[in-house]
Design brief:
Length: 857
């Protein structure tokens, strides 16, 4: 539920009512506070007073409440944080510097009241109510106790810690009192509906968490551990970081919380988780006090070397440089600065001055391990203590990061006050104004400090987020130091916010970025497969499936190569599939070409022999005209096999099939004609037979022409309807392309082969019927044998053609053409050539007419 500022008087009345005695109504002259006010640790009167609250101690001393007596005044306990003391004194210094200026609040004396919150909410609430209502024991009014009391401070600087700052902001929001924190970074405080009067000079953790996540991603870490303070600062900060880390694809092995007041067993458990983890990078979003306890626990049994990533709270705290196990730590801090005169102010202390302040007295005695005069216990300080010789966070002004935030916060309040009470020439110290008026002016301040830093606030009360990347490096003497190695500016475009300026020294003094991954990167050629039940950063690398590649590291999926491409052996790129066809330089093609030319040469030689002996009886008796036509067709058959070699093209595909079909039909037609002639010749020897007049030379030529013409018509129709075409066969082999001739029309191809087969079978049947005719004049037996070879070759061709892969398909077809052609020329013409060349005595008409005994060839 939102509480508006109009409830301020009510809260004031409630505060006065609680602490008014029972007789308040009876005696309206005054109201008395029952509880004692909390005393300031540093203060100075002035015309206007600024409040300050810092986490100088770590605890509030706890005492058992009896509920029978008034609770004791809360007291801070534990060791002193010298760095926070420096912050408090920075506010002192800034107020004094403002009072000495003539251009800012001239003639006005600023005062301050500084308290120690002890990082405790009860103390913060008590101080906040005290700031709002005053610390007088008696509230005097003439008529009633209920009149609204004006705040005793016009604005407040602080607190350092987030949780006390939230408590402050909720109370100050009711009264409209501006609060400017120098170190409370929780993003939750940017919510103006809950914290309308809260401002800060330190950037919000929303930016720091994003910067840390992007830095982790920048250095390639995907597997990290996380530990945080179990406070608003740690919980809100880690939530923002984990959200940003998830967006960057970073996985967290563990995320543990710890607060210094929790049982030691919790601290030991967190330390053991860190020791056992596999992540080599740990992000620590811890307050300084919690980080100190954790490191002291880890030192007792050091874990494996860890790369620490620190939040701004502790990464810039010089007190932690004594922990060598954090060497190489990196984290973001606000830019360092120089404040002229501040170091002299810090060191301008002597025992006499110190005794005036219990806080400074504690600092002095703690720093020099002695007791000042008038105090008991321990060695007495002898006056020779030299504060300039001290080396602790109080005297360390080499960085001045958060100290500068205090400086800026104090100046912001002074500028806002100047705008309220001053005009061009002078300031009116008597002017009355409400906290809301000062709040309005604070929203619009925009100035530069004397050391060169711009101060303004956005609509959420935040400054621009600018960080330095801090790296803990060893000096030559072996001590750790903070070195700025990079910068981050949230106002830059995405991808340009982060830049490195010098080399980083990593854990163990390494110069190489340490590796912290759950699983090694998957190389190109593989894909990531998430391990069941584990974060997405834990995965297995699975090789890409056949035909797929991945060309990037850590690919989530493999991609298919285009149809004409195939992966290389590493499966990280696609290259064009090799195209396979029976090329002229192929060994198999050369062998087939030799056989083809040899066959053609043999045919030419036979033709030459026949032509030379064309008048011889054996040539004339075997129908020389058909023989020469058959030899011509066989020559074409041998040569047409050459059209199957080489890269297929549109013309070569159409030529090879049609040439093959027509030449073979021409060849078989001639053989068929010769077979018919043999049958008719013997039938003509029968008494009264005149059959040869129906199958003379004209009829023979016409039959050959007719048989061939039918095949020509079939081929023409095939070429017109659906001709053969070059085809890239990518189905037989996945890794290469078979360049072959597609049939176009399978019916056309089957018709061509079927017609050849029909003629061959017909020829075989007729030759078979004529095989027992007289031997000397009969070549039917040779035709029968040649047709038997022809049919056997083409019958076995079909399954061989279908099952042969790639270029071997073409080779099988060429082999079938050559085998059948050789079968024809050898079976039909070899016996005749043998007789002509080697047995000229049998090449006589007398021998052919059976006048002498014949010998079977």
């Amino acid at each position: 539920m939102q509480i508006t500022s109009s409830l301020g008087p009510f809260v004031s009345v409630l505060w006065m009512t609680v602490f008014c005695p029972a007789g308040c109504k009876a005696n309206p002259v005054s109201c008395r506070l029952w509880a004692e006010p909390q005393m300031t640790v540093l203060s100075m009167d002035g015309d206007f007073v600024i409040g300050g609250i810092f986490s100088i101690h770590y605890y509030v001393r706890s005492e058992q409440t009896t509920f029978t007596t008034m609770p004791a005044l809360p007291q801070c306990a534990g060791s002193m944080d010298f760095r926070e003391l420096r912050f408090a004194r920075a506010m002192e210094f800034t107020v004094q510097e403002i009072n000495n200026r003539t251009d800012l609040l001239p003639g006005v004396i600023l005062g301050y009241k500084i308290h120690d919150s002890c990082v405790a909410v009860p103390m913060a609430i008590k101080v906040a109510l005290q700031f709002a209502n005053g610390m007088d024991l008696f509230f005097k009014e003439t008529n009633s106790c209920s009149k609204y009391a004006a705040p005793t401070v016009l604005a407040v600087v602080g607190d350092s810690a987030t949780t006390p700052s939230i408590s402050f902001a909720r109370i100050f929001g009711l009264f409209g009192i501006p609060q400017v924190s120098h170190y409370a970074t929780c993003a939750c405080l940017s919510d103006k509906s809950q914290f309308p009067t809260f401002f800060r000079t330190v950037p919000s953790d929303e930016h720091q968490a994003t910067a840390l996540a992007r830095m982790v991603k920048y250095f390639g870490w995907t597997w990290i551990g996380a530990v945080r303070s179990d406070t608003d600062y740690g919980n809100y900060g880690m939530t923002a970081f984990l959200k940003a880390a998830q967006e960057e694809g970073i996985c967290v092995e563990y995320s543990e919380a710890y607060y210094r007041t929790q049982p030691r067993s919790k601290l030991e458990r967190v330390a053991n988780i860190i020791r056992r983890s596999t992540a080599r990078v740990i992000v620590a979003f811890l307050a300084s006090g919690d980080m100190k306890f954790l490191l002291e626990e880890l030192v007792q049994q050091p874990p494996p070397p860890l790369q620490w990533i620190g939040s701004e709270t502790w990464i810039t705290d010089p007190d932690f440089l004594r922990f060598n196990m954090c060497a190489g730590a990196v984290g973001f801090g606000v830019p360092r600065s120089v404040i002229p005169g501040f170091r002299e102010f810090l060191l301008d202390l002597c025992p006499a001055q110190v005794l005036k302040s219990p806080l400074l007295t504690e600092f002095w005695e703690s720093s020099f391990s002695c007791s000042l005069k008038g105090r008991t216990g321990g060695r007495e300080c002898d006056g020779n203590e030299d504060i300039r010789a001290l080396q602790n966070p109080y005297t360390d002004t080499s960085q001045l990061r958060i100290t500068n935030m205090v400086y800026k916060a104090t100046y912001a309040i002074a500028h806002a006050l100047h705008s309220v009470i001053c005009n061009v020439t002078q300031c009116d110290k008597t002017i009355k104004f409400t906290p809301w008026e000062l709040l309005d002016q604070l929203r619009t301040v925009n100035f530069s400090t004397s050391n060169g830093f711009q101060v303004n606030f956005d609509s959420k009360g935040n400054p621009a987020a600018v960080y330095e990347l801090i790296n803990w490096q060893f000096k030559k003497d072996g001590a750790l130091k903070m070195v700025t190695v990079g910068h981050y500016d949230s106002s830059k475009l995405r991808g340009q916010e982060f830049r490195m300026s010098s080399a980083v020294s990593w854990v163990g003094g390494q110069t190489e970025v340490p590796v912290s991954v759950c699983s090694e990167s998957c190389p190109p050629g593989t894909r990531k497969a998430v391990q069941k039940g584990r974060p997405v950063c834990c995965y297995d690398c699975i090789p890409c499936a056949e035909g797929e590649i991945s060309n990037n590291t850590d690919s989530l999926d493999c991609i298919h190569c285009p149809p004409e491409f195939w992966p290389n052996t590493k499966q990280d790129s696609c290259f064009p599939k090799p195209v396979e066809f029976l090329s002229w330089d192929d060994t198999l093609a050369i062998i087939l070409t030799v056989f083809s030319i040899t066959g053609a040469f043999m045919t030419v030689c036979v033709t030459a022999v026949f032509y030379k002996h064309r008048m011889s009886p054996i040539v004339r008796a075997n129908n020389s005209e058909l023989s020469f036509l058959l030899l011509f067709s066989l020559t074409l058959c041998f040569l047409c096999s050459l059209t199957f070699i080489g890269q297929p093209s549109e013309w070569s595909c159409m030529l090879r099939h049609t040439a093959f079909g027509i030449t073979f039909v021409l060849c078989i037609s001639c053989v068929l004609g010769k077979t018919i002639v043999v049958l008719m010749a013997f039938r003509a020897t029968l008494p009264g037979s005149n059959v040869m007049k129906w199958f003379g030379p004209p009829q023979q030529r016409l039959s050959v022409l007719a048989f061939s013409l039918i095949q020509v018509i079939i081929c023409v129709l095939w070429l017109i309807i659906s001709p053969p075409f070059p085809y890239k066969n990518m189905n037989y082999y996945k890794e290469k392309i078979i360049l072959e001739c597609g049939l176009g029309s399978a019916v056309g191809f089957c018709a061509v082969l079927g017609y050849i087969g029909l003629l061959a079978i017909l020829c075989f049947i007729l030759a078979f019927l004529a095989r027992k005719l007289p031997d000397n004049f009969n070549e039917a037996k040779f035709i029968t044998f040649s047709m038997l070879i022809f049919c056997a070759v083409w019958i076995t061709f079909i399954p061989a053609y279908v099952s042969s892969p790639g270029k071997f398909t073409v080779a099988v077809e060429i082999f079938a053409i050559l085998a059948s052609s050789f079968g024809l020329i050898i079976c039909i013409f070899a016996p005749k050539c043998f007789v002509i060349v080697f047995k000229p005595d049998q090449n006589t008409k007398k021998h052919l007419m059976g006048k002498v005994p014949s010998k079977a060839l």
